[in-house]
Amino acid sequence: MARIMIVDDSMMMRNTLRRILEKAGHEVVEEAVNGQQAIDHYPKCLPDLVTMDITMPGLSGIDALKGILEYDPQANIIAVSALGQKHIVFEALQNGAKNYVLKPIQEDKLVAVLKMVLEQNGFAESQ
Amino acid sequence: MLNQYFGHYLLNKGILNNVQLSAVLDAERSVKVKLGLLAINAGLMTAAQVEDIHHLQRTRDQRFGDLAVEMGFLTSVQVDQLLASQREGHLSIMQVITDRNYMTLTAVENALNDFREEYGITISGVETENETAIIKQVVDLASAGDKADLLYNYVGLIKRNAVRFLDDPSFIFIKNSTGNSAQKKWLVSQNIVGDITLSASFLMEESVLLAIATRFYGEKLVTVDELALDSVSEFLNVNNGVFCSSLSERGLMTDLQPPIVIEQNGETGKIGDYCVNTATSFGNFEIILSLV
Question: How far is the C-alpha of B90 from the C-alpha of B194, rounded, in Å?
């Protein structure tokens, strides 16, 4: 089980992600509705993984990703985006996002990507 | 057809790791796509046939196209067409992947087929023509000039996604709006910006908004609140994301701005350049498009 922070300006997406992640046995330790909140909340909850929406009003997902990685270069961040936002998804990967999931979120894919990222980055199942 | 989303698909499938994908993305800008890969992508040759030609080339000093014609895999006209498409560069990521031996041609072919099926973002040219012909019977977007085909594609995409995400196979386009113009409506809107700029909106009454929100979110929603508005916004966002992806395959780079929602009370004036009326099993709504 991993401790996860969800970052998304859409309540619908936050609810959907929470539902999938909790069903998969993970704990959602924090939710942030914009990039600045994500940067502010990260040091307080120190999650094992962050799901980061890319397109948000105000501080974008890319800027929030950079801010979190500046604080914790080892942070596991998965970018969440609609198909079609090519430039910024590349930017997210180039700036340290560990992987990427497309909306609409498909439960099995999200869980598989999350598992892969956690395993590739040394997170043991028993933690 | 293919764009760089294929690379992310391979990453998420665990076929490429993120170090390999970054290397591929760095290298793909300068690579020249070879004829064999173009032929596989066009569905004119299988990976096995391309490998046969490669094998032959080891013993015969002839060009791929000449051998493919000689073997009866391609006609000379097809070779010319494929070579012309070489400049479009949409397949460069596949070329880099095979050049670097990250995947074999057969594995790329299989993954490409899976990718197309899974994301369902393409339909054949014939299907597109049929779909556009049906839409043209009720909607005239010809005044958009050379952008008209993009708008027809957008409208067709909404229909396909209504079936896919809203489970509404009865979705049709109609000539005239049947809504009550005096009733309060909601405008959910999003801008696509970049090589083309398109404002895409849904205008609907409350009951329709709640029905779309319920179907897309997957739980019954009875009040127009943040969750319901976010759900319809996400439906529009997903549509537009798929549309942006299809634009990128035409070489048009675009990004999405966050969706916005506006409450409209009573009669509304002209909101956009093009209005397409739809009828669904849960009520009617308008698709409103504006090109800048």
Answer: 18
